[in-house]
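sry for the spam today, last one i promise. struct tokens for design, 296 residues
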């Protein structure tokens, strides 16, 4: 399992048409772009995929499109989390897991559970899940930070919880997680800009936003770093760092959808309450893409 999910995972966007409907043709194009570009695995219906705005039927249709286009080329991780433990457990127990490799499950948001509440939440999910689970800690979105001691407790006591996507932005915290969890427990960067230093500290790769647009370049950076070829990794890191910064100036996935639009992979439409980036940010993105040789 660790070998399947080591390297570059891509948190896929969900393309929409102007009328707000899911653009399945663009989703197929994006999926093929990632498969051909060398992504190691695909993550469907995470934060970047605007999953909270999709209906249950749309979620199933999006997953089916990705599965059919991928055609078993890459492992697929499904985002499935929330702040109602009972409901998530029911969804997990009913899940058709064919074609899926693992579940990515974000910490509960809004109700702000204690550390013990987080532990009990993931214990319940662990018992219900038909697949291995990857924890997802992103306090900037959920208002709760899952601390290293809690992650270690889960890692040692819930054997089908195999890793964590760590997006706290705190390098010291991530190093504590790496140091205090079992050797086989995966620690995956959730911050594109911090991926290089986190791999240097022992992380296993990244679940990436920028990888939607540049799976080849960012994937090469990740694998250079994993192989200890740090000079080569640094070169690609700095080639992409300004683009990565611009992706988040007006929030995710607004930035990456603007990049994908400029690269003619999908159109730049989001579902409210999210909106497209301003013309100023769009112009800045185009300027960097041209400077780095991604656009003429």
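last one done:
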């Amino acid at each position: 399992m660790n070998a399947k999910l080591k390297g570059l995972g891509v948190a896929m966007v969900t393309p929409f048409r102007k009328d707000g409907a899911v653009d399945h043709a663009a989703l197929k194009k994006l999926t093929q772009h990632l498969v051909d570009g060398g992504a190691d695995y695909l993550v469907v219906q995470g934060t970047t995929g605007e999953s909270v705005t999709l209906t249950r039927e749309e979620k199933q249709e999006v997953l089916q499109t990705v599965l059919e286009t991928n055609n078993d080329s890459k492992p697929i991780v499904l985002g499935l989390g929330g702040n109602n433990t009972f409901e998530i457990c029911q969804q997990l127990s009913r899940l058709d897991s064919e074609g899926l490799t693992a579940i990515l499950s974000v910490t509960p948001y809004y109700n702000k559970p204690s550390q013990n509440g987080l532990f009990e939440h993931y214990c319940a999910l662990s018992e219900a899940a038909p697949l291995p689970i990857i924890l997802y800690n992103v306090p900037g979105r959920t208002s709760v930070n899952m601390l290293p001691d809690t992650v270690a407790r889960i890692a040692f006591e819930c054997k089908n919880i195999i890793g964590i996507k760590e997006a706290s932005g705190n390098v010291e915290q991530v190093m504590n997680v790496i140091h205090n969890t079992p050797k086989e427990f995966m620690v995956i960067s959730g911050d594109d800009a911090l991926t290089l230093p986190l791999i240097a500290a022992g992380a296993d790769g990244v679940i990436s936003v920028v990888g939607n647009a540049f799976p080849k370049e960012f994937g090469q950076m990740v694998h250079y770093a994993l192989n200890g070829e740090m000079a080569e990794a640094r070169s690609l890191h700095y080639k992409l760092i300004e683009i990565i910064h611009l992706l988040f100036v007006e929030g995710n996935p607004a930035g990456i959808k603007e990049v994908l639009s400029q690269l003619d992979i999908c159109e730049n439409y989001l579902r409210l309450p999210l909106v497209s980036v301003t013309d100023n940010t769009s112009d800045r993105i185009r300027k960097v893409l041209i400077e780095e040789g991604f656009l003429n």
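The chain has one domain: 7-229. ok im logging off now
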